[in-house]
Design goal:
Elements lengths: L6 H4 L15 H119 L13
């Protein structure tokens, strides 16, 4: 019995010694090397893009965390400002109330001051009139020879 072999093994070109040990033509080698080089280059580019993507994602995560922290700080600051604003509003209302009370007291003081001035003028006028009467009485006493001890004079403010 004879061994059967496929016809494809017989179809390989006979190579001359020294040309190449490969059954592929040099153009096929160039094509294969070129294709593999392109694949390697694509893989390099993909790896580089993945690395860049990972770096961007890390940068975005860091940025996102910083933004969260900043946002939390802003919330706290906003809450403090809201409380401060409420306190300012309360103090402002209290100031307004005190201002109105001060205005009322000032008007009352002015009224009392005017009344005091009026009373003071009346007292001066009365004192002047009494001084004139005392002078007339002293003149009459000395005219008729009546001796009296002078009344003690009150201290004037």
């Amino acid at each position: 019995m004879t061994n059967k072999t496929s016809n494809s093994s017989n179809s390989l070109p006979n190579l001359e010694p020294g040309a190449t040990d490969s059954p592929w033509q040099p153009s096929w080698w160039h094509w294969l090397i070129s294709a593999l080089s392109g694949t390697v280059e694509i893989e390099k580019q993909d790896a580089l893009e993945e690395q860049r993507h990972a770096q961007r994602m890390n940068a975005l995560r860091k940025s996102n965390e910083e933004l969260r922290k900043s946002n939390e700080e802003l919330r706290k600051s906003n809450e403090e400002l809201r409380k401060s604003n409420e306190e300012f509003k309360k103090n402002s209302e209290e100031f307004k109330k005190n201002s109105e009370e001060f205005k009322k007291n000032s008007e009352e003081f002015k009224k009392n001051s005017e009344e005091f001035k009026k009373n003071s003028e009346e007292l001066k006028s009365e004192n002047k009139r009494l001084a004139e009467l005392e002078s007339k009485i002293d003149g009459l006493f000395s005219k008729y020879g009546i001796k009296s001890s002078p009344a003690p004079k009150p201290e004037q403010p």
